[in-house]
Each structure stands twice: as C-alpha cells, then as structure tokens.
C-alpha cells in the first residue's frame, strides 16, 4: 500500500479562458495533515475543487488510494470516502443543525439512525453542535457554523478530509478549539488536506506542507523545516511564521 493516499501529477485546470493551475504536483501522505499554503490567488482553492471534480483537470492525473479519479464526477469522488468543506462552509441555513447533520449521514434517514457513539465523539469535539442541535443553522455564529461544517464532514468515517481555510474569520479562542479538534481527528487516523492562512494554526497542526505560487507547487516538505527557516518563509510567503 502506498504511503501517499492522494497524489496529483502535472495537474492543469482551466476555468473558461483562464489557465489557473499550471502543472500541480502534490502528495498527501496517509494518516498525516498536509497544509497547502500560499498567497491569495496562488491556486489553492482551485486545487481543492479540482481534486473534488467541481472543476475538471484539463491535463494531468489525480490518484486516490491507487485509483485514478481524474475524470470522476463529484458524487463519485465523495463516494470514495472523501469529505470536502469549502471556504463558504455550504451550510443549509434554513435547516436545523440536526437536519444538516442528517443530510450528510448517508446511511441514516432519521436522526435516531445516526451512529450515536460517533455523534457523542463529535459533540465532545464541538460542544456547540450538541447545544444548538435543534436550532436553525443560519442563526449560528461564524465559528459555530464552521464547527457544524466540519462535524457534517465527519458524521461518517472518512478516509480523507479536505478543508478550505477552517480558521478564517474566527476568534482566537475558537481557533484554539479547532486546533484541538483537528489534533484529535489526526490521532483517529484521518488523512487531512488543509488550506490555511493562519500561520499559528498551520504550525501547530501540519506534518507536511506544500506552498503554491502562480498555479504551481513551488515548495514541498515538512512543516517543521519551514517553521524553522525564516529565510525560506520570506522567499516563499513574504512573511515570517
């Protein structure tokens, strides 16, 4: 079995007349948290959306668990036990927290059919999900919506969790809660690919890191190596961690 759960090889993506990804090479090791960093407009979100089939790669190959998924549609990719939390979270505002969770639980038609032990685990990770179980999701704060979005993604066991900027716009206390939750998710064996701008968040969680610029991966390696090399941070990101 390959140590890499997800691999992108020479992936190009065009959106209309625009050529966004220019040959992305990326590996996501099994059981680790891989961070995708880069300035705004570097191609990070496009990479995630291309992996999920929301935008089709115009060239290159995407492999998941040894299977070529490049040409699969989004529902077929999700069926491979891959969950995606977009930057806008995709919450159904008019539905309750419970109804949002139930929609993501493919093996349950009613709330009582959801895995109770797994729900209790999620409630410990994100207490507001339990607290506001019967409340409309649209009434939640930004941090609570993000917790719901991640909870929905893990309501069933997943092999790969792909999340776009989970800490964006959150208060420091909520970010720390999110860090602790992701540490537990990692410990449970879930492989995670994360786009993140919060450097504190990245440093605490990342095992491996890929830095993007102009639609390409320009650096890949361990998060620790990047965190310890100020000159490398400046050259790649224009900042110091």
Automatic annotation (TrEMBL):
Q: Which residues form the ABC transporter domain?
A: 6-239
A Pfam family that the UniProt record links to this protein: ABC_tran
Its domain of life reads: Bacteria
Please give the SUPFAM superfamilies that the UniProt record associates with this protein.
P-loop containing nucleoside triphosphate hydrolases (SSF52540)
Q: Which Gene Ontology molecular-function terms are recorded?
A: ATP binding; ATP hydrolysis activity; branched-chain amino acid transmembrane transporter activity
- Gene Ontology biological-process annotations: L-amino acid transport
Check the record and name the SMART domains matching this protein: AAA (SM00382)
Q: Please provide the record's keywords in A-Z order.
A: Amino-acid transport, ATP-binding, Cell membrane, Membrane, Nucleotide-binding, Transport
Q: Does Transport show up as a keyword for this record?
A: yes
The family note in this entry says: Belongs to the ABC transporter superfamily.
Q: What is this protein called?
A: ABC transporter ATP-binding protein
């Amino acid at each position: 079995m390959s140590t890499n759960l997800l691999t992108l090889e020479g992936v190009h993506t065009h959106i209309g007349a625009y050529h966004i990804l220019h040959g992305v090479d990326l590996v996501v090791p099994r059981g680790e948290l891989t961070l995708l960093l880069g300035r705004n407009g570097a191609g990070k979100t496009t990479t995630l959306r291309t992996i999920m089939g929301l935008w089709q790669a115009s060239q290159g190959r995407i492999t998941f668990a040894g299977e070529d998924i490049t040409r699969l549609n989004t529902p077929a990719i999700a069926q491979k036990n891959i969950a995606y939390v977009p930057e806008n979270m995709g919450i159904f505002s008019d539905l309750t927290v419970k109804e949002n969770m139930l929609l993501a639980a493919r093996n349950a038609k009613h709330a009582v059919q959801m895995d109770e032990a797994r729900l209790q685990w999620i409630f410990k990770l994100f207490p507001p999900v339990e607290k506001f179980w019967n409340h409309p999701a649209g009434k939640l704060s930004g941090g609570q919506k993000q917790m719901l979005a991640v909870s929905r993604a893990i309501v069933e066991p997943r092999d790969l969790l792909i999340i776009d900027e989970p800490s964006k716009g959150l208060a420091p206390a909520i970010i720390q809660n999110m860090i602790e939750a992701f540490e537990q998710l990692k410990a449970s064996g879930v492989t995670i690919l994360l786009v993140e701008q919060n450097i504190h968040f990245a440093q605490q969680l990342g095992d491996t890191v890929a830095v993007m610029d102009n639609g390409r991966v320009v650096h890949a390696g361990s998060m620790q190596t990047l965190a310890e090399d100020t000159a490398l941070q400046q050259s790649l990101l224009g900042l110091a961690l």
